[in-house]
Amino acid sequence: MNAKTEMMDCQPEINTQRHVYQVDTLSANNNVPAVADRRSVIKKPPKKKWKCTDYMRKTIPSIDWLFLNYRWSQDFAEDTMAGIAVAVLNIPQGMAYSILGNVEPTVGLYMAVFPVLVYALLGTSRHISLGVLSVLCLMTGKVVTTYATEGAENDPTLGGYTAIQVATAVTLVAGLVQLLMYVFRLGLLCTVLSETLVSGFTASVAVIVLTSQLKELLGVDVARRHGMMQVPNTFFDFFDRFHTINWATTTVSVITVTILLVYGKYLKERINSRLCMPLPIELIVTVIATALFQVTTIAQDYNMVQMGEIKSGLPPFEVPPVKLFSAVFVDACVIALVAYSITMSLALLVSEKLKYPLDTNQELLAQGLGNVVGSFFSCLPSGASPSRSASQQTVGGKTQMASIVSAAIIVVVLLWIGVVFEPLPRCVLSSIIVVALKGLLMQVLNFPEIWRKSKTDGTVWMVTYVTVIMLDIDSGLLIGVVVSLLIVFIKGILNEVHVLGRLPDTDLYVRLDLYAVAVEIPDVKIVRYAGSLNVINRYMFKRKLIEVTRDYDDAASATTLTVTVIDGKNPIGVQRPARCVVLDMAALQYADAAGVKMLSESIESLVSDGYDVYLAAVPDSSLEYIRCNNDVKSVRFFPTVHDAVVYHQCSNKKNQDSTYDTQPSKTSILP
Q1: How far from 281 is each of 266, 486, 538, CA to CA, in Å?
Q2: Which of 352, 565, 653, 668 lies at a 20 to 30 A Cα distance from 336?
Q3: Residues 587-605 pLDDT 10s
Q4: Alpha carbons 478 and 467: distance in angstroms, whole number
């Protein structure tokens, strides 16, 4: 008890005695220039003269960190270890996620080389690992299925486009869109995809990926569904054709998934804490499975689907078919925006953690050019992988040299080692995909917490999640964006009007409905307005203002306020002051011409009813606009609510007592 009393006795206090200010007086006393003169007063920093070398170093960041300032003796060893760690993750993930894109397994390995090298030279993030990303591969796979001619790879006489031609056309258009965004400096465009929306979107895409892999996981003979109602139709087909299940494939899938889950839950942290780099469990499982099915005939005996022929070597240079550009343009734009948003979210997360700057516009150049270059070498649209980026950072990678090392290792795999994985059953790679999606699938458990914190965020999350699953990826994402922007628009036009009261013995004015101890000052109605004041919500503002002042009219005629001014030794009492409305505008976000006109009409109505009307704490951005467009000249502007209240009390006293001393005085407002 004594400690508590002592702590209360030591509470900091504020004791201030000053003049009561109006905005004009405050500005004049402190030499604040008029709005029209402020531009000439503000001193702009001298523009730096950029040289050609400066532009080169800004556009190609690797000139600085790699060619001029790289610390070979300190960072190369750690970057090499990080590069090895990323490479061993890239091998199984690259082959697995290529399945989602409906292209050959080696395409995922190509993506670990060409876009990665371009980003390493042009990107500003030191730790993200570009390459295959399940969401982008799935979205590209949908386009491939729509426009590719089945069997065109093996029989050119069929005409049409091969799967890789469609995929590279999408990649090239997506890269060009990102480069256009870079030219017009549209890096902030990705903000339309909020974190909540991206969370709901990625969680729903994980469900679609899981559904698409049921065929590979269980060996069920069903056709792959695409378009509207893909997930419900796939489950219907799955149960209808369940009798075709391949039990050998199912057994291998269950064993693989069990090993990966048990390792991740019980062994991963214990083992990795004793190693210099994370144990590549996915690669180990892939190698063991490959060796097992290489020396046995299990796959042939039970009709298991294997990887088949894997091309060795690097892909040839090939220009994507230009005629496809118009057909895939819309899908490519969506993929470009999603790729940039997800990659930037991950890059910002890492950069904030490690405290180094990012250039959001430069990231568009790096990713866009990476996709353009990759499209000529059989690559799908690339994005940053959370798992590989986390591995690159936790192992100790310092720069994008780790990505260069990783790309070099993948080149070796493509040239000499890739063909080793031909006997590998596809169900093993599907199992790796499903286990990698565990975190995304479990995001649905976060929904109650999102809903509890914010009903609007919860609405955006659930609408996006449900529509992506029930309709398709593009339609669901579009609906999610529209709902998100609609909520932002609605919040922008909604406003709040609250009556304030004063906390006893302070100059603090708070909401009466929240603070039970706050008291309303008789004959002074203090109204706080929060929100914008525009052509859409102006009548809402007027109606709410009338509501909070209506009950004031009848009570005010019988109210008596006593103001005691301590002036030397003589206390002075006053009876029946004029009524007053103080509008606290501190939370005003924006006011347009129609809103200011309605404000003027409301003030004029209050003045005609006998009120003194004061505007307090009007933001500087709206102050001059309101003053220039306000037709009621009798309204006064004050920097704080307390200034307005004290001014009103003193004005009433001055009007009723001609001996009022105009020097600053200590004023007590006694309700």
Answers
A1: 13, 45, 62
A2: 352
A3: 898 888 899 999 999 988 8
A4: 9
